[in-house]
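Methods — Computational structure assignment.
A single polypeptide chain was analysed. Its primary sequence is given first, followed by the predicted tertiary structure written as C-alpha cells.
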Amino acid sequence: MKLNGNAIKPGNVIEHKSRLWVAVKTSHVKPGKGGAFAQIELRDIRDGTKLNERFRATESVERVILDEAQCTYLYAEGDTHIFMHGETYEQISILAEMVGEPAAYLQDGMSVTLMSHEGEPISVSLPEQVSVTVVEADAVVKGQTASSSFKPAIVDNGLRVMVPPHIEAGTRIVVKTEDSAYVERAKD
C-alpha cells in the first residue's frame, strides 16, 4: 500500500531502502525557501538502528502491515525463547535479542503478541506491566527523604528496580516491562 511521504505517522511501518522501518517521530517542516517536507525519525525493526529521513509530499513509500498473533511463552533454551502460537499451536523459536531487554520479564504461560512479516517473526510485545517479587531491598536511611524517595531493590528475575521506601524483601510489586519502572504494590 503506497503512502505519501507527508502522511507517515508515528507507529507506521514502511519499507525504505530494502529494509523495514517503524516511524518513531515525525515533524512537518515548511522552510522559507523551497517546498515543505516531513522529517521522519525511523528505527529498523530487525536491528534497532535509527535513521533520520526527509520525505516530500510528492514522494511515496510502501506501507507495510504486520501480522499480529497471540502467543504463549513456553521456555528459554540457550539464547532462544520458545513460544506457542495461540491458534495453530505450533512452536516458534525466537532469538533473545529480538525480544530485547524486556525478555527478563518473560514468565511461563505469559501471553505475548508476536509481530511477523511474510511469515518471518520480527518482534515480540510483552504486556505493559508484570508482577514480580522483591528479593532484596536496601534499608531506609532516616532523614534521607530530601533527596530521592526511592531506593534500589533486586527483583526475582535479577533486575534492579527503584522502589518506594516502604517496599521490603518478599513484597510483590507491579513494574513496567519497557523501562522497569515501579507502578504499584501487587494486589495478589
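Note: The helical segments are 96-99.
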